[in-house]
Amino acid sequence: MKFGIAIFPTDYAISMTELAPAVEQAGFESLWVAEHSHIPVSRLTPYPAGGELPRMYMHTMDPFIALTAAALASKTLLIGTGICLLIERDPIHTAKEAASLDRLSNGRFLFGIGGGWNREEMGDHGTAFETRWTLLRERVEAIKALWTQDEAEYHGDMVNIEKSWFWPKPVQKPHPPIILGGNGPNTLKRVIAYCDGWMPNRGTALQRVSELRQMEAEAGRGHVEVTFYPRPNAGDIERAAAAGVERCIFYVSPDGRAPALMQLGDLAKLIRPYLST
Asked: Is-contact 126 119, C-beta < 8 A?
């Protein structure tokens, strides 16, 4: 079992240059950051977890800049977007940022992506909620083309890139792992179709791992790694391991240095018995 730490990298959180080496030294394999470009004040879309939207959503730094700081402050720690809202991003610029980060980190980048939930946020980027999954797939496919082709081009219904030269290419070959977040009814089909890994949150996700294994076998494709966000207790870790999860991720507080380091210490003690399994 591998273990990671996640955080909303806010302007008032512990610095990424302090957190990354602390996470690495504590025995964790990876560090993940969330993304929200902005939050429209209208707040028409309800917060999925219920209640008021926490202020960290309004204060999140750009994930690629935050992860660059983390990469340069660590040596072996994997760094990932958890998740990048690719539906709100230009695919060419995002491909450039991600490839540059993979280069700067010497191949340690994990590209977590998702379709998002905030209609008004994505609407400000010109993205329609109803067609966001088509857009997501095409942007992923376009980014793969830019990463892997010397003269890259992509022609879809919503994304069009004429034959282009694009460098740098990522260090990882054929490209950094693309990991789809979420646990909707069609998520596993999307994972099989154009991703390398699955990153569900809680809920019924553990019961669907066997479904994923059957789908990957039927599609004749390689193993799809599963990353999961359990509650921070031994029971949840053991249930995840029994279901076939390969990586568990735990959030630490974005509310300053002391809370994050205290939680990191507690989580380091929690995972210690599982690091060799």
From this structure: no
Q: How far apart are CA 25 and CA 87, in angstroms?
A: 34
Contact 163/181 with Cβ under 8 angstroms? no
- For helices 91-104 and 132-148, the axis angle rounded to 10 degrees is 50
Residue-wise pLDDT for 91-141, tens only, equals 999 999 999 999 999 999 999 999 999 999 999 999 999 999 999 999 999
Which stretches of 195-233 are DSSP H helices?
209-219
Specify the number of domains making up the chain: 1
Q: How many CA atoms lie within 13 A of 183 on its CB side?
A: 16
pTM: 0.96
Q: What is the largest CA-CA distance in the chain?
A: 52
Give the domain range for residue 35: 2-274
**Both structure tokens of 133:** 């999954």
The one-letter amino acid code at 187 reads T
Phi, psi of 62 (to 5 degrees): -60, 130
DSSP states of 19-39: HHHHHHHTT-SEEEE---S--
User: What is the CATH classification number for the domain harbouring 131?
Assistant: 3.20.20.30
Residue appearing with tokens 């491909």: 95
Of the candidates 73, 69, 46, the one whose C-alpha atom is nearest the C-alpha of residue 57 is 46
Between CA 42 and CA 130 the distance in angstroms is 20
Helices 63-72, 16-25: axis angle to 10 degrees equals 50
Report the Cα 158 to chain-centroid distance in Å: 23
Distance between CA atoms of residues 140 and 95, nearest Å:
9
